[in-house]
Amino acid sequence: MLSRCSSRHHLTRALVLVLLITHIHAGPRYSSRIVEIQTGAIRGIILELNSRHLEPVEVFRGVPYAAPPVGPLRFQPPELPLSWPGTRLADTFGAVCPQKYPDVSNRTAALQFMPKGRYQYLKKLVPLLVNQSEDCLFLNIYVPGSGYFW
């Protein structure tokens, strides 16, 4: 017969295991395929779509297609990106090119200068423009029908 302390210990271990498994599944699901490109290897993620009629899509986010246009490369034609060792996880978006957009923090003031539809669109768009940089030469590649790689 298990003592009360031992019973609590097993319950705690089981709870930690459930939380750990839940945390593991909450993150991105990485593709098992590694793709070799000119500058190195990349591994994407599998994006589940909210439709029973559409298969998952393999996504490669933030893949550099040119060297960062900073320093002496600023305002120059793009150069090839730098190579990297190992496999690069292509699971996060790269920076967005710098953009100036209307202030939508005050709804009443914003609606005096724009239609309601534009205001609603900009409210959804602004969070995606947080990470802005001149180093914004990245591709996001979506590969449909690649479900056999995971």
From TrEMBL:
The keyword Signal applies. Residues 1-26 form the signal peptide. Keywords: Glycoprotein, Signal. Gene3D superfamilies: alpha/beta hydrolase (3.40.50.1820). Residues 32-145 form the Carboxylesterase type B domain. Belongs to the type-B carboxylesterase/lipase family. This is Carboxylesterase type B domain-containing protein.
